[in-house]
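Anyone up for a design puzzle?
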């Protein structure tokens, strides 16, 4: 039994291991906090960019709607009605496609109104 460490030595070894473990956990938690704060900041920046993009698209579509109404006002037999509400099922990943569809629809309307004879206009 002389080769076995004393209880005091074993206690010191256990406490040293516990201290190292506590330091490792603190360091891991510090790195994790930094990582999460960075990810939160990135997400907030993305939300801000997307909100600006949404505002820009809404302004563009409202402008096309007003221009479409201006074209239709020359026709006595049609009323443009109210601005359609946004479609909540539209996906941001397809934004360019949606914008292009609105642009094409406006162009088609404009061309159709322009192609009408003068008698159909008032």
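Challenge accepted. My sequence:
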């Amino acid at each position: 039994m002389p080769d076995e460490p004393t209880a005091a030595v074993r206690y010191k070894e256990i406490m040293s291991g516990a201290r190292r473990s506590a330091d490792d956990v603190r360091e891991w938690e510090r790195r994790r906090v930094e990582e999460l704060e960075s990810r939160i900041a990135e997400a907030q920046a993305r939300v801000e960019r997307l909100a600006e993009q949404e505002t820009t698209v809404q302004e563009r579509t409202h402008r096309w709607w007003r221009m479409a109404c201006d074209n239709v006002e020359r026709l006595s037999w049609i009323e443009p009605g109210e601005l359609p509400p946004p479609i909540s099922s539209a996906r941001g990943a397809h934004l360019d496609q949606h914008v292009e569809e609105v642009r094409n629809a406006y162009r088609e309307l404009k061309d159709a109104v322009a192609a009408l004879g003068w008698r159909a206009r008032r």
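A detail worth pointing out: The chain has one domain: 7-81+90-120.
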